[in-house]
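Exercise 7. Given the components listed, write out the predicted structure of the assembled complex. Treat all entries as one system.
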Amino acid sequence: MAVKVFGFVGSNATYRVLASLYEKNVDFELVTVNMAAWEHKRPRFLARNPFGQVPAFEDGDVSLFESRAITKYVAEAYADKGTSLKSKDLKKSAIEGVWAEVEAQKFDPATAKLTWELFFKPLFGMTTDEAVVEEFSKKLEPVLDVYEARLTECKYLGGDSFSLADLHHLPNTQVLMGTKVKSQFDARPHVSAWAADILARPAWVKVTSLLPK
Amino acid sequence: MAVKVFGFVGSNATYRVLASLYEKNVDFELVTVNMAAWEHKRPRFLARNPFGQVPAFEDGDVSLFESRAITKYVAEAYADKGTSLKSKDLKKSAIEGVWAEVEAQKFDPATAKLTWELFFKPLFGMTTDEAVVEEFSKKLEPVLDVYEARLTECKYLGGDSFSLADLHHLPNTQVLMGTKVKSQFDARPHVSAWAADILARPAWVKVTSLLPK
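Answer.
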């Protein structure tokens, strides 16, 4: 099996990559990086990602890190397999690219803080900082307002087809659906329908089957 | 002239886009958005970018926002003009993509705070928060350590050729060279040489000629 993902169950960035591989029907091996044993900070893993963070990725002689760079590679390298995750039309692909950047620059900075405070901290026995939750819930509001307007125009963020722009949202959205932030999605009918739609994709359901129960 | 950039002199994200257009020898018109008159929050501009931030971009019937999405479009749409900013080889392009993500996820979050505190706040008559400067200078250290190691292996971050991965660093690097953060670059010979090299590119020198004197 040529494709290897070096990550672990519990890492949202790892899930982002797995979602792209399941969408593409690309066989892969998930090589667990033992974070508790600090494997991600040892030379062997640092040679794969000098920042010492999961996931890292290998496809034959291609070695990559940064989850969003990996999904782009998967979308292009396996363009003709499974779901098309990136339009072959330059204009459509550029618009998908805009909304992929919006995820990285606007959605992720707010939702990464919220998933940390509301899901991961309690999981690790730490106390949620409600002031941080309030601050970043407020920051998420205008982002979801823009999404609501966008999703009134087209079914997916990047256009009429599911693309990386939507896929990149899956891990944080999945986590937030189990928190009070769900009400912010629910308050917007198009955002709510879009979230339900992408979370129900068979490829994502396969990823969630790996989640700790 | 088909290509229009809606932005203003003083916006680092606008400069990122201008750098890509100068590298490609693509003629463009810079349409100034009057931020003082809140033009960026009015319906006409919000139709270009619903987040109300510069730059926005137009190329015939292609309308985009988010500076890094725009530069990618420019690199692909004008692939055969000027400097190649994105390799046509899938593997090389994927590695450039990794380092472009590193800029967005690691370099920019630290340096955007530093440019704000050390350059823009004094420019607007505001007081620099030295605690913030210290915090983000520290966060920049491991990023520059990784860059130093990477630039020992190859001349540019994405490989042996200049690419978007380097270009995206230009605006914040330009500003920081006029601050005490320069010493963090200078302390690393390969990072220092790389910064000097990319800042001296004729396309970037054209952008800097627009900077307020």
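Discussion: Chain B touches chain A through 30 residues (CB under 8 Å). The first helix of chain B runs from residue 12 to 23.
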